[in-house]
Amino acid sequence: MFYLRYGITIICLFLFIDDPSLVLGQSIYDFKGKKTNTSHGMEKKNRSNSSYFSNDSSWFSPDYSTPKETFSNRNNPSSKKIKNSNLNKNQKIRFRGLSGTYTSDTQESSISTSSIIWDGVGIGQSIIKYEAEVTDLFVDVENTMIDLSYTFGDEYTFTLGISSVYSGELIGTTSDGQIYNSEKVFGYGAFSIYGIEFGIFEILLGYKYIKYAYIDLESESTALYWSNFNDSGGLYVTGIGIAF
């Protein structure tokens, strides 16, 4: 009889109530509640917890305010513009050209450098020419180097880089007219450049160091002590660049 009574009640609710699913859920809940042996203390605890969360709305306010503020900032067009502008600053493209010379009584050297920098990472090429009198040999050297660099900063920049000599030619002439030449060269270098922006232009000042060696100098006659030539030195360079 107990189950029959509840069955008839549920059927009637289905027939006369517009939303039977809600009523079915409530009926099942009441049915289980009556069948479960719940102590008075537990009911009191549940009621106290329920009243605590429902009445003290300030307990939730700090947690909900922060996500709402973050969500509003995320959808704010001005914040997006600021983020995009900062992103564009770090992704500038720079074209640079630098040169430097040094002259004394016994030697003359020059360097020209061109490079492109994108998002801080740069690649370029340097050509170094060197003429000097070394003991009884007059040398004429031209080295070509590949440069790799990284640039820090935006309006005020600092660039650090390394270089590698990948081709070159040396022609040496002795005091008695013997000519030596070689294209077998290896070497390396390092450089640093400071830059200041004025609009889209950059004013650049830097220093470049190089060390290289030529081996297997060939000539018509044999002279072992000219079998190799090595040298090192540095030059100050200045130049201009375009950044956008």
Topology diagram in text:
Layout: H1 2-16, H2 20-35, H3 40-55, H4 61-74, H5 77-89, E1 93-103, E2 107-118, E3 121-134, E4 137-153, E5 156-174, E6 179-182, E7 185-198, E8 201-215, E9 228-243
Antiparallel strand pairs: 1-2, 1-9, 2-3, 3-4, 4-5, 5-6, 5-7, 7-8, 8-9
Report on this model:
There is one protein chain. With 244 residues, the protein is an alpha+beta fold. The protein folds into two domains: 2-88, no CATH class; 93-243, Porin. It is 30% helix and 50% strand. The chain contains five helices and nine strands. Strands 1-2-3-4-5-7-8-9 form an eight-stranded antiparallel β-barrel. Helix 1 packs antiparallel against helix 2. The radius of gyration is 41 Å and the shape is elongated.
Can you give me a brief rundown of this structure?
This protein has two domains: 2-88, no CATH class; 93-243, Porin (Beta Barrel), CATH 2.40.160. Helices cover 30% and strands 50% of the residues. It contains five helices and nine strands, in the order αααααβββββββββ.
**Beta content:** over 45%
SS content category: alpha+beta
CATH fold topology of the largest domain: Porin
* General shape: elongated
How much is the radius of gyration in Å? 41 Å
Mean of pLDDT = 75
Please name the CATH architecture of the largest domain. Beta Barrel
Q: Can you tag this structure with a few keywords?
A:
Porin, 2 domains, eight-stranded antiparallel beta barrel, 5 helices, 9 strands
